[in-house]
Amino acid sequence: MTSTATPTAGPHDDPVEPGWADVTASESSLRRFLHGLPGVDQVGAEQRAAGLGTRSIKTTAKAFAIDLAIRMVDLTTLEGQDTRGKVKALSAKAMRPDPADPTCPPVAAVCVYPDMVAVAKEALGASEVHVASVATAFPSGRAAMDVKLADTRDAVAAGADEVDMVIDRGAFLAGHYLQVFEEIGAVREACAGEGGAAHLKVILETGELQTYDNVRRASWLAMMAGADFIKTSTGKVQPAATPPVTLVMLEAVRDYREQTGRMVGVKPAGGIRTSKDAIKYLVMVNEVAGPDWLEPDWFRFGASTLLNDLLMQRTRLATGRYSGPDYFTLD
After folding, report:
1. Average pLDDT, the chain
2. Which one of the listed residues 121, 148, 201, 231 is annotated catalytic?
């Protein structure tokens, strides 16, 4: 990885990544850095992602991969018709995905709108399942900065352990990189509540970024501003998560750690519905970023329907037969 600056690595919970002062001193210096990143070979990225998707794994490894994928799920409901009852039911499922099998692991988090954070927090109690909340005028990001920050602070005050923010894609595509950088940094600071800092996931909305080069630049920009995770999509725009885009983001977090010493997580979200798809992503994580990322702290699936397929495949491996699609609750 060649670049114009080599920052010093900082703590995982610093509000803004230290060491980038020279790069972010002006719009022109930040533009030089981001446009100086190596370009993405579109054909090569798509071919490699397709090739990794053909890898097969043994049955014993498949059972491990399914349980790992379950542990990486952010079980999500982000609809205008969400109710307290739905969020409570989703939280119960997050803690015990298969009530008939206590060996089934819980998911990583329940992801809801800010006004439902307190409901999820109460329902999850002392469990290890985190509460994630979208914020910053999700999914469009079209709001004044004070509104975005209030949205974030409300979620953290209600008990959110993680905040999923959206970047201003209009500003990014117009080349206003410093504005995007400063907004991410401000939201990162707003994630510091009285009970401790909420981790920040930065949603790039890659379906609107137009090129893989832009995905790489947005990934670096978010990491430089202090993101704990970079996330592909809101799930409201198509295309959402794709293997080539996720590959580019995995390369970015790998290269970022090599340069700074700091690990950043990756979260593909939207369109990942089957165990087969999830396992393909796990193979990609291992091959591109490395096995250190094969933990829920560093890789997540944003999903609402993936969990049921994982549970059905898990039951088939354990019993030799499929459960019907209505055996598990529909979310």
Report:
1. 91
2. 231
Res. 16: pLDDT tops 90: no
Q: Is the peptide bond before 296 cis (omega within 30 degrees of 0)?
A: no
**12 pLDDT higher than 80:** no
Structural domain count, the chain = 1
**Active site annotation includes 86:** no
Residues 274, 275, 277, 278, Cα dihedral to 10°: 120
Strands 192-193 and 109-112: unpaired
Answer yes or no: is 13 within a domain.
no
Is 327 a domain residue?
no
Domain contains 21: no
Span 167-179, average pLDDT: 97
- Annotated catalytic residue 236: no
Residues 170, 157: Cα–Cα separation, whole Å: 29
User: For residue 237, what is the domain's CATH number?
Assistant: 3.20.20.70
Who wins on pLDDT, 28 or 327?
Answer: 28
Q: Is 231 an annotated catalytic residue?
A: yes
Q: Are 145 and 139 in contact (CB under 8 A)?
A: no
- Is residue 10, in this structure, part of any structural domain at all? no
| Structural domain that includes position 31 | 27-319
- Give the active site residue among 74, 151, 161, 164: 164
Q: Which listed residue (93, 148, 267, 280) is catalytic?
A: 267
pTM as predicted: 0.91
